[in-house]
Amino acid sequence: MSKFPVDRIRNFCIIAHIDHGKSTLADRLLEMTGAIAKTEKNKQVLDKLQVERERGITVKAQTASLFYNHEGQRYLLNLIDTPGHVDFSYEVSRSISACQGVLLIVDANQGIQAQTVANFYLAFEAQLTIIPVINKIDLKNADPERVESQIEKVFDIPREECIRISAKLGTNVDKVLQAVVNRIPPPIASTEDPFKALVFDSNFDHYRGVVANIAVFGGRVKKGDKIVSAHLGKAYEVNELGLLRPDEHPTQKLFAGQVGYIIAGMKDVKEAQIGDTLYLHEQPVEALPGFKPAKAMVFAGMYPMDQSEYTGLRSAIERLTLNDSSVAVQRDSSLALGAGWRLGFLGLLHMEVFNQRLEQEYNASVIVTAPTVPYKAVLSSAKLIKNRRAVQKNMVYIDDQRVMMKYLFPLNEIVVDFYDLLKSLSSGYASFDYENAGYQAADLIKMDILLNGRPVEELTTVVHRERAYSTGKAMCERLKDSIPRQMFEIAIQAAIGSKVIARETIKAYRKNVLAKCYGGDITRKMKLLKKQAEGKKKMRRIGNVEVPKDAFISVLKRKEK
Ligand SMILES: Nc1nc2c(ncn2[C@@H]2O[C@H](COP(=O)(O)OP(=O)(O)OP(=O)(O)O)[C@@H](O)[C@H]2O)c(=O)[nH]1
Q: Which residues are GTP-binding (predicted)?
């Protein structure tokens, strides 16, 4: 594309609570600026992934460059649609770094919700211009007056700044475009400076290698230029670049202030890390600050179904984590499941989506162990004995029907099923968001599970002292259901140190198998023993006890039973 005056460029993202209508508004903006045709089929066009279409939620931020004519001038608007769910907030914070303003969408019926507040603060702290947009005014129960009061009270934004729209019907969407041009400042970037670009997203294409999404902070870059990635200091030749409209639209050059994509023969996923800076080989620049690494909240083991699939799975995980850099990856191995990884996610939904993307986009099937949360152990004999329940921090009335409450919770208590429980208790009205409040001392103990006296390493868990007995008992019962009877009696025990707190027994099997074969029936006897031997192939041996592989997973699943 030709050089575009920086003062006619606007970079903004759309942020909101889940389902408040970001993707629907993005569709309307794309239609009104002619980027996509207005058809029934063109719904949530920026939700490109199969997992997004199936679940109806955005999990990846997507970029689209739009051209908009306003008062006789042509403007270039770079829009980033972001996910609403808290588990994908890393996408929001990264998107914000490429923007000068945000559209903060609030549902006219639901009003301000937990992620509205969380996303507002991300934009506020980054000092972006915030345009409040009240969506779904076509709904029968819409109450824009009241939502405006909430916005005024909670965010201190004058109600006159709110724009009431229906993204579904297109009502007042033109006012949103005008506000983007009139209220959001252009980026501060000069085409005269040396080329400098931030890699704010990146994905791996099977044929072309790494495709990096960049925001150009200065200068210009063209096809054939030799560029360097600051992270590794390696040089590459630019093969292709262009705009995302929202599909790739190759151009000859990209200029300061623009957002687009670049392909430069990077074949390894480690070569275009998100947060990296690109510059021209002959004009080195100081690297941009990049992004703070995401802080994993939930950890789970991931293993190939069969060890022969290890290498394939490794490359699938590497490529997917290039596109989702908020996943923490560490190699791990387990006695029962072989070589694998310990992965860190921002939440359970994030973990499920990652797993689904591995299957859908990389055809990889995996075994995922039940999620756990991180603890910090203090090696000391004294530990505080204190009851670790939720502690209320503050409470604000948003209006006469809604209240915002802040609590301090142990992460372990909220990470698995708290959200579902909260939703069902409040008939779907309550919404929930969390941030890390750091480590706190708690009365936690290590609990071992023993099979015939031998500890099973992967079943060792950290539990609250008060929950030890009930958790240990449940785990023993579930193991009893999962382990088939064997030639000898098996004792399943939960123990704290040397003290056994729960026990189940699996009676010996042999006697029963062969008991039915009175004396002479040797063929029947052999058949039964053969059947037993076949079953053993899918087993892992712990001491002298054969344990089916899937027992390790089912026993850890707290909710199941
Ligand atoms: N009645 C009405 N429904 C709307 C409007 N805008 C969006 N919706 C509906 O609200 C639902 C959620 O809309 P989305 O655009 O997917 O919401 P989102 O904020 O992108 O959701 P996430 O990306 O998953 O956070 C869909 O069923 C839309 O059809 C509107 O103006 N009026």
A: 16-23, 81-85, 135-138
Distances (CA, A) of 427 to 420, 430, 431, 559, 561: 10, 8, 11, 21, 24
Q: How many structural domains does the chain have? A: 4
Helix (H) or strand (E) segment spanning residue 418: helix 418-425
Residue ranges lining ligand 1, Cβ < 6 Å: 16, 18-24, 44, 57-58, 83-84, 135-136, 138-139, 166-168
482 is in an annotated binding site: no
- 475-499 mean pLDDT: 88
Q: Whose CA is nearest to atom 9 of ligand 1?
A: 21
**Distance of alpha carbon 294 from alpha carbon 296, whole angstroms:** 6
Query: Any idea what the CATH number is for the domain that residue 462 is in?
Result: 3.30.70.2570
> Are 449 and 550 found together in one domain?
yes
Residues 112/398, Cβ–Cβ less than 8 Å: yes
- Written as six digits, the tokens of 423 are 């939703």
Rounded distance from Cα 164 to ligand 1 centre (Å):
15
Q: Identify the helix (H) or strand (E) that includes residue 173.
A: helix 173-183
Q: Cα(39) to centroid of ligand 1, in Å?
A: 17
Give distance in angstroms: CA of 382 to centre of ligand 1. Answer: 53
Range of the domain at 335: 296-366
Q: Which is nearest to 340 in space by CA: 362, 371, 297, 309? A: 309
Residue 107 pLDDT > 80: yes
Residue 132 lies in a domain: yes
With cut-offs at 50, 70 and 90, classify the pLDDT of residue 401.
low
ipTM: 0.97
Going from the Cα of 101 to the center of ligand 1, the distance in angstroms, rounded, reads: 21
Q: Is 374 annotated in some ligand binding site?
A: no
